[in-house]
Amino acid sequence: MPDYIINEFVFSDLSDEAIAEIEALTVNGEGIVDFNILLPLPDRLRGEWKDGDMEEVISIWGTKWNAQANPPFKMVKKPGDGRIILRFLTANNKPWHWMTALLAKVQTSVQYTCAGEGNSDGNPPSIIVRKNPSPNAKSKGTRSCSSA
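Given the sequence above, the corresponding structure tokens read:
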């Protein structure tokens, strides 16, 4: 059984068009984050896995399974609020590769927070903030999330 990472992305100061763009890149028709939208798995990895397939999925998304929504975390947005919040779980790791691909496409401010299940290691959740991004901007972060 995996240890889960709780992930939260908060995009703020957005136009309605920017919100729609983020939603189109990240959220399926049920309002749940779906890594396959931005980084689709090859068809052969969408069914039953063989030896080595999990490592290939991790190399694509940064985590072994698609975003989980149990409890049912969903996208949060309110018309006119100018922000969108994505909350979801991942198994064992943060979705680094998916996150990198998303932030390369969406040039806006974002706060990413994550915490391991129970956060039993005594470390605070990881927080990464990117404000007013430029092509050469680097994210600033704190400790990485751990799941145990």
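Confidence is low (pLDDT under 50) at residues 134-143. Try to locate this feature in the token string yourself.
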